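=== RUN LOG ===
request id: a7f3
mode: sequence -> structure
chains: 1
length: 420
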Amino acid sequence: MKLKSLLLANAVLLGCMASQAHAEDEAQLIKKGEYLSRLGDCMACHSLSGKPDYSGGLAIESNLGTIYSTNITPDKEHGIGNYSEQQFSDAVRKGVLPDGSRLYPAMPYPDYAKISDEDMHALYVYFMKGVKPSAEQPPETSLSFPFSQRWGMRFWNWAFTSDKPFQPIGGASEEINRGAYIVESLGHCGSCHTPRGLGMNEKALDSGDAKFLAGGSLNNWDVPSLRGLPRWSEQEIVDYLQTGRNDKAAVGGEMKSVIEHSSSHMTDADLKAVAAYLKFLGGNPPLQAYNVQAQQQTEAKLTAAKNLSEGERLYIDNCGACHFVTGKGAPGIFPELDQATIVNAKDPTGLIHTILEGAQQPSTEKAPSTLAMPGFGKRLSDDEVAQLATFIRQGWSNNAPAVSKDQVADVRKSLKHEEK
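=== RESULT ===
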C-alpha cells in the first residue's frame, strides 16, 4: 500500500513538473513570438490608436483603392481564433485565407514567405495565446472592378512571388546573414525600398538581384536606396533605426511608424546585423560629390544676410534657427539639409509635405523626447513654399530641380483630402 501511494505521489509530481515545463516553454514561445511580431511590424498595420492591439481597421491607400487591415486577434468570430497553425502560415506566407480567398499584397506575404518554420510557430503561439481577443469588426475592403476579384491574385502570386525559403549568402558572416534574414523576411524592407514593376510587384525579393532595396516611390514620396548607405556608418544606421534620428537625419513619412512600432524594439545585436547587411550590399554611389565651394558660398551669403533671394530670406526667417546657415542642423537633434536624401529626391513631394505639415520624431526607449518641427502651411503661400523648397534643393552642395507652386498646390490638396 505504501509503495502504491509512493508511486502515485511520484506520478503526480512528474505530471506537475511536466506541466510546469510545458508552461515555461509556452511562455518562452509567446515571448519570442511577441518579439518576432515587432520585427514583422504587425502592430503598425493592424492597430489603430484608441482600439485594441491587432484589431485592424487601418486604411491603407494603394493604387487600387483603400485596403483595410484585418483583425488578427484570437477572437473566433471577428479575428483569427479558428485558424489552425497551417492556415495561419498559409495566410502569412502565401496570402491565402482558410476559405481559399486571397489577400492583397498590401499584406507583405511575398516577403514573409521567407519566415522560417520555427519563427512561424512562435508567431502562431503568440497570436493565439499572447494577444487579447477583440470583437472589433474593421471595415470591409471593397475595391472597384476588376481589382475586387480576389481570385485573380492566384495568377499574380504565380507570376510575382516565390515559395523559396531564405537562402543564406555564401561566404558572408553569421551577423550579415542574420541581418539578411530580418531584412528579406520579417522586416519586409523591400516592400517599400525596392522598385515596383508594371504589376505593382517588387522587382526583386532578395540580395541576389541588384534591384533589391534600390529605392522606389510610396505615395509620391521618393523612397531611398538602402544599398550600402554610403553617407552613413553602421552605427548611424543603428541609431536611426533605434531612435528615429542620427547625426545626419531624422525620420519622416511612413518610416516613423516603422521606428515606433518595430525597429526601436529590436535588440542591439539584430540592429547591428541589419546595419552590417545593408553596408555589405553596397552598389549605391553617393548622391553627388560634396561641393565645398558651393557650401561655403551659401553659408557666407546667409551669414551676411544681404541681397537675399526670396527663398534665402524665407529660409533665414523660418528654418535658420534650427538648421543654421550651414544647412548642417544639430547632430542627433535637427537633421542636415545639405546632401539630405529627402532634399535631393527627384520627386520633391516629401520635402514639400514636411514644410507644409511639419514632422515629429517618435518617442523611443533610447530617445524618449519627441522633437517636433512645426508646419508652415498656414503661414506660407504655395509660391513661398516653392521658393523656399527650391533654395533648399539648390543651396550648399545640393543640386536638385526647382519646385513649382503648382507642385506645392497639389501636395496641399492631398493633405486636405487626408484630413477629410
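=== NOTES ===
The chain has a mean pLDDT of 90.
The first strand starts at residue 59 and ends at 62.
=== END ===
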